Structures are given as C-alpha cells and as structure tokens.
Amino acid sequence: MPPPKDVVKIAIQMVGAIPQLIELQQTKPLASVLKDVCDAWSLPNAERYALQYADGRQTYITESNRGEIKNGSILRLTTSPDQEAERLYSGIQSNNSDVKTDSLKKLASLSQDVTFAQEFINRNGLKQIFSIVEEGNDTGEMLAHTLKAFMELMEHDFVSWETLSAAFIKKIVSYVNMNAVDASVQQLSLSILENMVPTSRLLFELVKKEVTLDRLLTHLQATNAELQLKAMALLIALLLAATDAERRDMMDYLREKNIRQFIHKNIIHSSEPLGDEMAHYLYVLQSVSLNLCERRMRTSMDPYSQEQRELLQSLRQTAFESESEAPASTFSTERRRSLCAKEFRKLGFMNNSNPAEDLRRAPPGLLALDNMVYFSRHTPSAYSRFVLENSSREDKHECPFARSSIQLTLILCEILHVGEPCTRTAQAFYPMFFGQDHFFEELFCICIQLVNKTWKEMRATQEDFDKVLQVVREQITRTLSLKPTSLELFKTRVNALNYGEILKLRQTERLHQEETLAVPVLELRERLKPELLELIRQQRLLHLCEGTLFRKISSRRRQDKLWYCRLSPNHKVLHYGDVDEGVDSPPIESLTEKIPVADMKMLLVGKECPHTKEKSSGKQNKDVLELAFSIVYDVEEYCLNFIAPTRYEFCLWTDGLNVLLGKEMTSERTQTDLDVLLSMELKLRLLDLENISIPDTPPPVPKPPSNLNFCYDFSHTEQ
Questions:
Q1: If one looks up domain 83-290 in CATH, what number appears?
Q2: For residue range 545-602, what is the model confidence (pLDDT) as tens digits?
Q3: Which helix (H) or strand (E) holds 579?
Q4: How confident is the model over 129-149, as pLDDT tens digits?
C-alpha cells in the first residue's frame, strides 16, 4: 500500500551518529518530532535543536515550511536558530579577533535563512553590526563578512533602510571613496548604497552628495569586473531615482567625461564577454539618455515663442539665403510674406503660410524642429542639396523635407522607445549608441537622407508618402536588428538595403509564409501535421533534458541567485537546484531537488502564477509577466516558480511541460515551428509538380458509356 498522503519518508543526519530513517507525520507537531529524534540519539533538551536541509541552502525546517519536505529528503539535526543566533551574537562581540571573524563569517552564511535572520534581528543584532562598522577600523576580511551579513539580513525586509544611522551610511560611503580598501568591501559597499538609493529621497540625496560621479567613474574604469558592475549598478540606481532636471544634469556631466566612449571601448568591446546584468544596465543607461528627448517630443510648437520662430526661420534662411540677390528687407510686407510662404512650401511644410502649425502635433513636437535645425547646421551641404534638389522637381514628385522630417522623427521615437519606462529584465541596447555623442540627432541625419534616396528609388509622388516612410521604417529596423557597432557601419548597411533589396526580402518572406491553397495540398498538409507535431514534441522534451539556467528576481534588485532545471533522460523526474555564477550546464547529479513528473498537476502562466501575484503591478513588471510560469505539483499543490530568461525559452519550457502533462502545446513558437516544418515538407513533396497548376478540385470521373458493345464477347467461339 502507498504511504498516507501526510507522511513523508526522510533521513536525518547528525555528526558522529548513525543516520535515522523515519516516516515524518506532517500532522504531528514539529516539537514532538524533534523530541523523538533526540530521544533516539539520547540527546537531552530537544528544544535546543532544530532540523535543516543537509543540501542546498540548508534552510531551517519550521511549521510554516515543513510542507515543502519531499519523500527522500535528507535533513540534519543542528542547533536551533535561537541558540545559534545567541551564540553568534556573543561571538561577534568577542575580543578575540579570530573568534569574531569566524562568527561573522558564519553569520553571513546563516543570515540567508529567514528564521535565523528574524531571531538574530530580534536580539538587536543589527545594532551590533552597526557598531562594528561605525567604530571599527578594519578594512579587510572581517569587514567584508560584516557587510555581507548586513546585506543578507536586510534582504528579508524586516528592517527599513531608512532607519540606518548617518554615521553608518558615512562609513559605507567612506569605503567607496577610499583607495586602499579590499575590493570585496568596496563591492559590498556599492551594493548597500545601490539598495538604499530607491528607498527614500533623503537617502538618494545623501548618496548623490557623498559619492561623486567622478568617484563612480573611477570604479567603472577598474580592471575588476565585479567592482565595475557594482559601480554601474549604483550609477543606474542614482539616475532612476533622480528628478528629470537632476537626471539631465547628471547625463550632461557624464557626456563631458566621455563615458559613452569609455563604455564603447572598454566594456562593450572588452575581451571578456558581456554579462546579462551589465547588458541590462547598458540598456537602462541608453533608455534614460534617449528619454531626455521626451520633454521636447511631447511639447508642441508655440507660435508666439520668439526662440522657436527664430529656429524655424533659420531653416528657410540656411536653404535659400543665397538664392535671392536682393535682401528680403527691401521688399514690401506683402511681397516678403509671399516669398517666405513660397520658400516654406519648398521646404516641405504643408501649411506654408503658417509652418508652425505643422509642428503643433506632439509627439514628435519640438523634437522634429530640433532635428531639422541640427541637420541644417551640422551638415549644411547635405541639407541644401536635399531642399534644392526637390525644389527643382515637379510638384507631385518632390520629397517634402519638413513633412518627412516630422514623420521620421516620430518613427525613430517609436523604434527607440523614447518616452517609455525601462523594463526590469531587458538587455536590448545598441552598441553604436555608446560610440556617438548626439546619437539621436546623428541617426536622424543619416535617415533623412535615406528618405530622399528611397523616394527617388520608388519614383514616388505625394500620394506615395506613407508607403515611402513604411519602407524607410523597415530599412531602419532591419539594419538595427543587425546590431551595427557604429553609426558609420549603420549608414553603410542601411544605404545598401535599397528599395530593390526590400522588395526581394518581402518576396522571399512572402514565399515562405504563403502556402498553396489548393484542396489536395490542404489535405496533404493536414495529414502531415500529426507527424510534425510529434517531432516538435520530441524537440521540446530534448530541450528540457538539456536544461536551462534561470534567475530568481526579487522585488529589490536584479542580481539574485541562479538556479538550474532539467528533465531526466527517461522523462520521469524534473531535477533543479541552485548553482553558482559561471556554471552553464551542471551535471544532473548536482541538482538536489526533484519533482516526479507523475506528481505534476498543472501549468500556470503569466498573471495566474503565485510569484507574479505577489509583485506590484505596473508597466515595469509587464515583461516579467510575459516570461513567468509555474508548475503545480503534489497533492498539496506546491508550486515551482520560473521566470524564463527569454521568450524563446518560455515557449520551449511551457510546451515541454504541457507535453509531460499530456496536453497540447499552446505557445506561439509551436505554430511558428509547425509552419516552417510544414512549408519545408510540402515543398519537398511537391517538388515534382513545379510549374504544374494543381486544380482546386479533383478532375471529374467520366460517366459510364451508354453501352458496353466495344467489349469483346468471349461467349462466341470462332468458327
């Protein structure tokens, strides 16, 4: 008979004793279980002991988490959390430096456990840690263990960051600003400040004042990659917590210090591969920088603003100042107004009598005007050539500069996500962004000339304006997807992708997407589907067997623990467990946690997952919702929660888990893969029918003849 549902078979170890194999009754109080275990080993005072997992994070077993114990788990009898907290609380106050260091090291390790952390904090342990930091002069191993323990204790959110004393904060700041400090101490200090900054305006201002941008840039230029990463994390935290005005000032200062060029040369093109966290920080830095354009993008032109009118007039004067021999001031008011209207029409404004009306739409608002002025001032020859070349064409064939610039600015804002909040896990930055100051304006200068080039290639008229801009959008997005490392390379590639190439690419994609709709082909398609779906199922299960590295994302910070999950080769057990940074594919034996596939009940995705319900809703969590899924397993309906690193991994894992559950694969990737396989298989099967039209219906069967006299009659013998 199978064991009762509320009983699990486990092993309990103790140093110097023979392990006990027991059947743990989950309904029995934990204190009674501990007493029975202690009695078996003749240990008095059972209340001084506790159970914890022997492997992994070695979490203490409590009444609240005992339900997570599985059959076959190995536990260890150890000192209870309150006894251990008391011992370490005394140990960190010892006058013996070796005892103190060992106690702090053990504290840093045990503080990851929420039960121990609560016991230690309840004994006012944080106050003792503050005292060690504030009064000590050590900057080596002991301080590193102290700061590590502090970070782990604060991670449980029992204590607010706003309760930290000014003396403690200044001491942490001093470690960041010192030169002769152990690198691990500086890394931990930077992490502490990074966590402080978002919690309150007061802490942000304190950190911003005490840790200068120059000091952060010094750490960014360090050869220690981890120190470089923590410095970038604090810089990003400061930028995100700043007001718009502060953020603009900080970015201006960083521009003066050529941070983009440094990042482009020493981080992006470093000999070491770029990690996920650094890629995310570069994405945020790019997003923050581009979002400085948002204010101008959302501001309509004010026709009564003298400054804006002068910018508008400068466009006309730069293009046409040499055309008229006589100065405009010698003309009458009416003649001057008529001449200006004519020139604004040549510039491509739709409302040539009042061109400011064209810039009232926001977005792109004043950002379009800024781009046009930048183009006219920094590339005057290209600007004049664009305007004058189109002025000499027939009215219906001229490419309107102003109208094109306004629409192009809007397209670039949409492609580069200007004005959109940063997402928490995105890593999609453009390397060329960091290789160029005034990136947005320089990109516009390249793309507005591309508009004129594409207009001529399409032999477009005014009625084709939207079609031309659609092609230009496609040229830009296709080229950006190649991740060019510089604007020069972008310019070369986007100009090579002419209208003819776009048509060829569209035709190729159309041929891949379109299938013959003849009934026989559709019937063949349906016959092939089961076989190809089985192939996709096998591929999904194979991917689960190879396994994937997942990252735990806490509510406070991104850089959390890594864990790995993979399916056993016989497809019967899911193995998972925590892994260290840098481990790509751990052996299945090292993954200590297991879930039998037979115990899996259902798969949850997105908002249905328990770990997404705990998070606050908002735009920042939208990308996490799209990557979240959970496995519900066992009779108690426990959950194993995942956040996939990419949408691709999300699709493969959810499909594979659905296969294990005996359900249909539902991800968009399944349909894409099926379409590709069907397309290939159909083309192979129909290869011999090339250039032969397949009728929609089978040819009709001829009617039987009116008589069968044409048959030889064997009944008559030959005479």
A1: 1.25.10.10
A2: 999 999 876 655 455 678 999 999 999 999 999 888 778 888 888 888 899 999 999 9
A3: strand 573-579
A4: 999 898 877 768 899 999 999
Give the domain 7-79 fold: Ubiquitin-like (UB roll) (3.10.20)
- Its pTM stands at 0.72
Is the torsion defined by CA of 153, 156, 157, 161 positive or negative? positive
Residue 232 and residue 219: Cα distance in Å, rounded?
A: 9
- Buried (b) or exposed (e) across 206-233, using 16+ Cβ within 10 A? bbbebbebeebbebbeeeeeebbbbbbb
Interstrand relation of 548-551 and 593-596 (parallel, antiparallel or unpaired)? unpaired
The half-sphere exposure of 675 on its side-chain side, counting CA atoms within 13 A, is 13
* Class level of CATH domain 530-672: mainly beta
- What are 197's two structure tokens? 């900054």
Rounded Cα–Cα distance for residues 650 and 667 (Å)? 9
Name the pLDDT band for 708 (thresholds 50, 70, 90).
Answer: confident
> What are the residue boundaries of the structural domains of the chain, listed by start?
7-79, 83-290, 298-321+334-510, 530-672
- Kindly report the CA angle at 550 between 545 and 555, in degrees rounded to 5? 155
Tell me the pLDDT tens digit for each residue of 615-627.
Answer: 555 555 677 888 9
Q: Compute the distance between CA of residue 575 and CA of residue 557 in angstroms, rounded to an integer.
A: 26
H-helix or E-strand containing 567? strand 562-567
Question: What pLDDT digit, counting tens, does each position of 443-496 carry?
Answer: 999 999 999 999 999 999 989 999 999 999 999 999 999 999 999 999 999 999
Going by C-beta distance under 8 Å and a sequence separation of 6 or more, which residues neighbour residue 78? 49, 50, 51, 52, 84
